[in-house]
Write a structure and sequence with these properties.
By secondary structure, the chain is mainly alpha-helical. Among the domains are: about 120 residues, Tetratricopeptide repeat domain (Serine Threonine Protein Phosphatase 5, Tetratricopeptide repeat, Alpha Horseshoe), CATH 1.25.40; about 100 residues. The chain is about 85% helix and about 0% strand. The protein is rod-shaped, with a radius of gyration of 74 Å. It starts with about 25 loop residues before the first helix and ends in a 10-residue tail after the last helix.
């Protein structure tokens, strides 16, 4: 952007102390200040004007002259404040006209300093044009007001052009910023999407890994369970077999005991039979020895022998029945044997 330069009209300032009554001490200080001002010693003049105003703070002449010193030092805003106070306090139309004219000149200088902010500078320029018009109406600088206002209006046009350029530049900057923001947003979205895809891939890989690990764990658990089941099954078989052996041993022992009892009973029966035979043989022997004794004695021995035979028959039935019951008990005690299925 090109820098705008302006040729500022050099305006003369009329400083007049005539017609104003000032106290002796204030007047003495003011005269010294005026002398410094005429000699171009504006800092010294400003100090003395400020001291005089402490003694007479409402004096419009001192306010006007102090503002002139501020203007010469380039302190335009302080000069503007001083001219405004002087014109407000003055009851002299001539001094008021001079303050308004100088106020407009200071405002144009201030506007030029603020040209980087066209909106604010244009407000100051409008105030300057208004104050120059007021000074002209009061009869001050009639021949200078026209060129000054023309210069102010030219400066105002430059400010409008500058404002337009700034607005265009702002819009361009905004568009560039929007484009950059859009690009940044797109890049960020692309980056986020890429990051999300990477995360999704990582999650998938992690899930696959976890699933595989879980499958291996489940398989290991199943293998261990199968091994334990086989072991338990084998242990049960061994226990069943051991129990069967124990039951068989018990049954064998019991059968032996029963066999012993049967043998003992048979021996007793055999001995009894022998005794019965012996007893039976004795009467026969006696019968042979005494054949003549037949009658009632023969009938008695015959009856006795018949009774012994009947007793022997009953005893044999009891023994046979006991053997049959024993066989039934043995069958009932046989252990249950599991048949392994082969299908």
């Amino acid at each position: 952007m090109k820098k705008i330069t302006f040729k500022i009209l050099v305006l003369s300032f009329i400083v007049s102390l005539s017609g104003v009554t000032i106290g002796k001490t204030v007047a003495s200080i003011a005269r010294d200040a005026d002398k410094f001002y005429k000699d171009g010693k504006y800092e010294d003049a400003l100090k003395l004007y400020s001291e005089a105003l402490k003694l007479s703070p409402e004096n419009p002449v001192l306010l006007h002259n102090q503002a002139n010193a501020y203007y010469k030092l380039g302190k335009y805003q302080d000069a503007i404040d001083g001219y405004m106070r002087a014109s407000a306090k003055s009851k002299d139309s001539s001094l008021t006209a001079k303050s308004k004219f100088n106020l407009a000149s200071a405002q144009l200088k201030e506007a030029f300093a603020k040209q980087q902010n066209p909106d604010e500078a244009m407000v100051v320029v409008k105030d300057a044009i208004s104050n120059w018009q007021t000074a002209k109406d009061l009869g001050e600088g009639i021949d200078k007001v026209g060129p000054a206002i023309e210069l102010a209006r030219e400066f105002e046009k430059k400010l409008l052009e500058r404002k337009k350029q700034q607005d265009q530049q702002k819009q361009q900057n905004k568009d560039n910023k929007d484009n950059k923001d859009n690009k940044d947003n797109k890049d960020k979205k692309d980056k986020d999407k890429k990051k999300q895809n990477q995360q999704n891939n990582k999650d998938k890989q992690d899930k696959k890994k976890q699933d595989k690990q879980k499958q291996n764990q489940n398989k290991q658990k199943q293998d261990n369970k199968d091994k334990q089941d086989n072991k338990d099954k084998q242990d049960n078989k061994n226990q069943d077999k051991q129990k069967q052996n124990q039951d068989k041993q018990k049954q064998d022992n019991k059968d032996k005991e029963n066999q012993k009892k049967d043998d003992s009973q048979k021996n007793k029966q055999s001995n009894r039979q022998k005794n019965d035979n012996k007893q039976k043989q004795k009467p026969q022997q006696k019968k042979q020895d005494s054949k003549h004794k037949v009658g009632a004695d023969d009938k008695s021995w015959a009856n006795k022998d018949k009774g012994q035979q009947e007793a022997q028959r009953i005893a044999n039935q009891i023994i046979d029945k006991e053997k049959e019951n024993k066989k039934k008990r043995v069958i009932l005690r046989l252990p249950y044997r599991t048949v392994d299925k082969d299908w």
